[in-house]
UniProtKB/TrEMBL annotation:
One of its GO terms (molecular function) is lyase activity. InterPro entries: MmgE/PrpD_sf (IPR036148), MmgE/PrpD_sf_1 (IPR042183), MmgE/PrpD_sf_2 (IPR042188), MmgE_PrpD (IPR005656), MmgE_PrpD_C (IPR045337), MmgE_PrpD_N (IPR045336). This is Uncharacterized protein involved in propionate catabolism. Belongs to the PrpD family. Residues 5-244 form the MmgE/PrpD N-terminal domain. Gene3D superfamilies: 2-methylcitrate dehydratase PrpD (1.10.4100.10). Residues 266-436 form the MmgE/PrpD C-terminal domain.
Length: 448
């Protein structure tokens, strides 16, 4: 049996009872985190633009669009996926550069509402979709990503299709077809980091996953062995024949990709977060502020250089991929959240002046042992000549460096209460924590 068929059979056969409780609990934490940032993103500039587009170009329907009017399932998947990634605050896998929940859960929810699935089925489909994205992503990583592809939009499309297919009970043959269809629909380029098109990648992946499943259900054809062969998807998407088919199939039902998900403490590229927490620690421990700091030098893994496009950002989208802004905002405020990542804050003279104090350096295998992760070293020189140093090897919020639950709680409520009342945000939180025992209609009533 080839890897396409084996992964398709996994999607067909997985049930809620197959998933260990640790994985389901972590999945619900990820869903809560995503819903909070997607609610905020629903009326962000990106969210407004995406919704205006689907409102005029797509038909009406019954699929929930966060804090907006309902639309067709593909339109809702597009919007909700983009909303989740609008401010780059959504989760990531630790071991691979993919934001899984924005494309996967957006597709899962749209698919679930189409067939009035149970919330248990919704949760199972989400876990299955994360597994598909994780495995397709790993089978081509890191060459695919290093060659300029944004894996959230490529591997994430397969995850979205897997989630929708699981929820809508496609058989393995139909799932294989859906994978074949979505392979030709998936695309996303890192060149667009720092623009509105980056969050579009997540929305596009969600929409294409739903589209592929709907087409496969209706008899549309595609190659049913899309991963195999010299011109199979994964070999085409790597430039040095580094595709590893075992990454697709090894230890299915034994290892769970959803457990690799980490949660962002800052609304910026995850590559900035270890440095930001290091700066946060130094600022708090030594009462640092711009007036008593001469310079800041941050050293990052060499691979980060291609993601950090903006040394002197002009707006909030660029600031998400500016290590200089990220550390400058921590130095100014002691924090960096949704209130700092705004055009107004980025353009303030005080912010631009503080940015000038920060410089970047890159080093291959920063922490040895060929560890190409999200770690950073921050060195601060004070105006009195004192030198300070802090290093963090793993991104805060990742499984290897988890952040306190209180930080995740604050993040959820800060984002959710930008659109909901305090009581509704609390009710939504409770519904997610007890997702399997909450009716689908009741669950979506908090976010529609």
């Amino acid at each position: 049996m080839g890897e396409t068929q084996e992964l398709a059979e996994y999607v067909e056969t997985i049930t809620y009872d197959d998933i260990p409780s640790e994985a389901t609990e972590h999945a619900k934490t990820a869903i809560r985190d995503y819903i909070g940032v997607a609610l905020y993103g629903s009326h962000h500039e990106v969210g407004d633009t995406i919704y205006n587009y689907i409102d005029t170009q797509y038909g009406d329907g019954d699929a929930t669009v966060f804090h907006r009017d309902a639309k067709s399932a593909p339109a809702a998947a597009l919007a909700n996926g983009a909303f989740g990634h609008a401010i780059d605050y959504d989760d990531t896998f630790e071991s691979i550069v993919i934001h899984p929940t924005s494309p996967v859960f957006a597709a899962a929810l749209a698919a679930a509402e189409e067939v009035n699935a149970s919330t248990t089925k919704l949760l199972t489909g989400y876990v299955a979709g994360c597994e598909v994205a994780y495995r397709v992503g790993h089978s081509t990583y890191p060459e695919h990503y290093q060659n300029g592809w944004h894996s959230t939009g490529t591997a994430g499309s397969f995850g979205a299709a897997g989630a929708a297919a699981s929820i809508q009970d496609l058989d393995a043959e139909e799932v294989s077809t859906a994978f074949g269809i979505v392979a030709s629909l998936s695309s996303a380029l890192k060149k667009n980091f720092g623009t509105m098109t980056k969050p579009l990648h997540a929305g596009h992946a969600a929409e294409m996953g739903v589209r592929a499943v709907l087409l496969a259900q209706n008899g549309f054809t595609a190659d049913s062995e899309i991963f195999e062969g010299d011109i199979g998807y994964n070999r085409v998407m790597t430039i040095d024949d580094s595709y590893d088919p075992e990454e697709i199939t090894e230890d299915l039902f034994e290892e769970w990709g959803v457990l690799d998900i980490g949660f962002k403490p800052y609304p910026s590229g995850v590559i900035t977060h270890a440095a930001m927490d290091a700066m946060r620690n130094l600022t708090r421990e030594h009462d640092l502020e711009p007036v008593n700091v001469e310079s800041v030098v941050v050293t990052l893994e060499e691979a980060a250089s291609e993601m950090l496009h903006h040394k002197q950002p002009n707006d909030a989208l660029q600031a998400k991929f500016s290590i200089e802004f990220c550390l400058a905002s921590i130095l100014r405020e002691g924090r960096a959240g949704i209130h700092e990542f705004t055009d107004e804050y980025v353009q303030q003279p005080e912010t631009q002046e503080t940015i000038q104090k920060v410089s970047r350096a890159f080093e291959s295998n920063l922490f040895g042992d060929e560890f190409a992760g999200y770690g950073a070293v921050v060195r601060v020189t004070k105006t009195d000549g004192t030198e300070l140093r802090e290093e963090i090897r793993y991104a805060p919020g990742s499984p290897n460096n988890p952040i306190e639950e209180q930080r995740l709680d604050r993040k959820f409520y800060e984002c959710a209460e930008s659109r909901l009342s305090e009581s509704d945000a609390e009710a939504l939180d409770t519904a997610i924590q007890n997702l399997e025992d909450t009716e689908l209609d009741k669950f979506v009533s908090y976010i529609e």
